Amino acid sequence: MMKRTILTLILLVVCAFAFGQTKKAKRDTLYTITQSRIHIKDGQPTNTFDIINLKWADTLWHVSRDLDMEQPNLAINNYRWFFYDKDKNLIRFERYLAQKLDRRIVYKLNNGLVSEREHYQLSGNDTVLVRRDLLTRGGNGWVSKIKVVDAKGKTIATESYSYDARGNEVKMKASMKVVLDADSVLSRQTTYTYDSAGRIATRNVKLVKSDKSKDFTAYVYTYNKDGKLQLTTRYDAFGKMLGKEEIVYYSGRVSQRKYYDDKGVLYENMAYRYRKFGASLDNDMY
């Protein structure tokens, strides 16, 4: 009963919030996705949880609203909006912090593919253009180069990409006059192995970061009987396990994500609930 009451209150709060934002996003949402963090005790999930996020999506699962739910009163202060064109291509992203627009990215398309990204950030009481990403694509449509320019058009970084025959990135190299982000990468080399079904079985990634530090991570992927990704295990360069992520499905959709540390102990458990917008609590899609 308590769980039903909480979910009902959430839907009422979110509806009131969203109706007040109709000028910002077209209401074509038909589904909601609730994300909860299950409390962990001694490496085991408990029966208690906190609802931390709610997403609204259309029939093709394009998310239009992404709302963080703050405890303990489920306040909505930080959220993200996604805008699409008539063909469901993403054309604009907006991030709000403390209910104030903090960042905007505008996507420009060429034949349905992104050719340019404009980045805007908050400056005083307005958002100003801080950089543009100019994308070059090969004949296969894959991005081969990104040139980053500042608001005046001066080049501040370039990135080049190459791929294997399956379209998976194998090499990225960057040259930066200005560090774009705290986790910027100067180079990335990736190798893959594939299973008999053509799925990625392992992925080894070597990084050189903007601070010149190096990193190596090996990923091993396990799939369930339906061919869906079930387990991702990470290892360092010496073969020591760094952690793993388990995905649990229900009715074909992700219902839980479980995160384990380097000792295999569960430390975080996320649960997801799906509902058709406006449906009663007895009509969950889960």
From TrEMBL:
Superkingdom as given in the UniProt entry: Bacteria
Protein name per Swiss-Prot or TrEMBL: YD repeat-containing protein
